[in-house]
Amino acid sequence: MEYQRKKKLTNCTIGLLFLSGGIEYAVILPTIWAYLQTLHAEPYFLGLGISAFSLTGLLVGPLFGHWSDRSQRTKAVILFANMFEIAGNFMYFMGISKWLLLGSRLVAGVGTGVGASIFGYLTRSTTSQERATVFAAVMACRQVGLLIGPACNLFLRLCNFRLGPFEVNKFTAPGLFMCLLWVLLQFVVMAMYYDLQPGPHLQRAALAAPEEEEKPLVQHEAGQEERDGQHGYGSTGTAQRAPGEPPEGDEYRYVPNGHLAEEEGREKETSPFQNFSVMREYLREEVVVLLTAQFITLFNQTALETMVTPITQRYLSFGELENSIMYFLCGIEVICGFFLVRCLSSRLPDRVILVLGLVICNVACVWCLLFLARPRGSFPVLLTELVVGVFLQVLGLPFVAVSQVSLFSKVTAEKTQGFSQGLRRSVGGVATILGPLWAGGLTENLYVMLGVMMGLLSLLTVMVGLSYSYLVEPPRGYVPGPSQEEQRS
Fold first, then answer.
1. N or C: which end of the chain has fewer CB within 10 A?
2. Residue 474 has what DSSP assignment?
3. Which residues are bridge partners to 163 per DSSP?
4. CA 182 to chain CA centroid, nearest Å
């Protein structure tokens, strides 16, 4: 079938894009500090260079997502974003000065913002049942790239020749390599990527709403007083909405079969000031919980990644080779974890997988507090404590990552998925900037560093527990609507 062939090619292209993103991270990161030293850069430039890449990505992610939402096309967005990757990596290859190197990471970071558009496309082109499986496969592609990247450095470090006015050596070769790889991907996207509309199975699902759901919901002003005290975590009022139900009151109105043309036209006719009510979409309890999960898990992950290397150097005398082997084994574990979650997602709800991941992460954080904050004992004991702590932390990551992305795509509006995913990725970008900064300043005081991380994780666990009944996909046909105050204005 032609549609299925195009869908497979498109999915393969998306996998290659995420694979290349992982390769870029693993190729650039190991050599950027030595590269900066050859350009006489101050030590703080390393942090600036790493943060710059995340900063521009989190800023443009919502913009790219909004672009794809409005156009319902992602191919043009991907081609446009890849141009920044090409330009940024060529600037990295040129070198010349530390400021140009910093600018190269800012420019290349813009290209990462296209991930929001891609996740929006995947949401629109998959059913809610298969979404977690698809997201797990896409995330695993990036992890595979993180494993391939170090292997690419094995031959890039041997480069020593000139290309016109530019010198190609072990520091500049990664930039040239990634520039050529992104150029090649431009041709792959043009040839293999298709802007597909939802397939026949999704269209049939959209038209399969039961007749009893066609009845409009009648709002009663008499019940307004009952709803006044029902907001906040763990509210126990008798009128609290049941699991899977949309929020009561004026926040939601019923629209048969999801998106009607007259509703879309009505939204276009509203005053621009009324569009600010869209923000209420992201202030709902379940959305806040999932954004918090995105921030805390990435904050803890990047903080622990920053902490592990100084610990292994101080207590185990690990060098570059030992740390590389450790990261390689962690990458294999993460990939296996993603495929494990992919298998479990067809049998367990997303919120159950999220809880399992949080349990594992809590156990890992407690273990690190007990044994890694002040390591004691012989080399075999210290190595065992480190291996167990890292293993548990890496094991919990795929469970939390896949489940919260899948849930977030289900509790937010489908027609604005690009912007929503951009917002989610921006929150994660802030976490990846703050996590290393927090851990880097407290490598000598691990009790404080790990204690705060444990506190954040405990807060997230409590939030998920209190909001557990809301972490489900709402029934088809409910979209956010204006409040009474907005209707009167």
1. N
2. P
3. 166
4. 21
Tell me the two tokens of residue 415: 């027609």
Rounded CA gap, 443 and 233, in Å?
35
| 136, 139, 402 from 350: Cα distances, Å | 12, 16, 8
Element (H, E) at 163: strand 161-163
Query: Which residues of the chain register pLDDT less than 70?
Result: 43-44, 47, 198-279, 319-321, 324, 440-441, 443, 475-489
The C-alpha atoms of residue 99 and residue 398 are separated, in whole angstroms, by: 36
Kindly give, in sequence order, each residue whose CB lies less than 8 Å from that of residue 475, ignoring residues fewer than 6 positions away.
Answer: 213, 244, 245, 246
Q: Which amino acid is at 225?
A: E
* Alpha-helical regions (H) of 167-319: 173-192, 200-206, 224-227, 261-269, 285-315
Work out whether strand 166-168 and strand 161-163 pair parallel, antiparallel, or are unpaired: antiparallel
CB atoms within 10 A of CB 262: 8
Name 416's Cβ contacts closer than 8 Å, sequence gap at least 6.
66, 69, 278, 281
Number of helices (H) and strands (E), helices first, in the chain? 17, 4
CB 200 within 8 A of CB 1: no
One DSSP character per residue, 403-461 reads HHHHHHHHHS-GGGHHHHHHHHHHHHHHHHHHHHHHHHTTTT-HHHHHHHHHHHHHHHH
Q: Quick one: how far is CA 170 from the chain centroid?
A: 31
C-beta separation of 417 from 115 below 8 A: no
Q: What is the pLDDT of residue 167?
A: 82
